[in-house]
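User:
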Amino acid sequence: MRRWIVFVLLIGLVLLAVGCGEDEEEQESGYRIWYMNQEETRLEYENKELQAKNTEGLIKEMLEMLREQPSDSGLKPVLPETVRVNEYRIEHNQLYLDLSAEYLDLAKEYEVLCRAALVRTFCQIEEIDYVGILVEGEPLKDLDGETVGLMNEDQFIENAGEEINAYKTADLILYYANETGDRLVEQRVAMEYNSNISLEKVIVEQLIAGPPFEGAYPAIPAATKLVSVSTKDGICYVNLNEGFLETGYNVIESIPIYSIVNSLVENTDADKVQISINGETNRMYRESISFETIFEKNEELVQQ
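Assistant: Predicted structure:
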């Protein structure tokens, strides 16, 4: 009898735990739409249930809600009525928003919070990993005149009131594939990123996202995910998922490898790079390149 009592109690605890989990999920159902407080010093979100079932519809609904007055009277929309959305497009899981010239009239602190709200809101859509902002068709630039580039939610810390002072900037030289897929081409990308994120992570994720400008092509399969990255004793250890092994784009086997290696060695303190797949190095890439190799920068692959 005692065993049965214990068994029933255990079942009850499990059901209670499941019920609590369901309550938490219900509280976080829908999408977070980010708004600004009236003092324009921080962001807060409200959960909204959206009707759209596809990416196009979700973008349109989110744009509407970003302009609407939120339920909390202490908050206000992040997109002013004066700023128009000229158009938007999606390329390689990247959403590009083209805003009207009035966006450049926003105060710097306001603009940073507005940018953070846009990125956080749209990156919840499954097909969108990065957001790029253009103004009248031209890439958004920072106060130094450098292109801001593609952004994801990791670039903005959770306490949005501290975001304005939480950035680092980096003028990066990143390597992507050329049109024929047999050489690397350089692109200079000015990045503004969260100081809590390593530069190595920023670089690899930017490479996975693909080139932000014309004249270069993606080198790394879109299914690739960064598991971890760290640098020790001059060697950068890059751990990727199985997606890196997919055929991906039409490039020769060395291009995805040296897109990562050349970019990391060029922009960080690392002299060499080792790549692993889910922590394993005893594997081959396209049956010709061993992941046990410690790679060095390859200048010969760079298109002159």
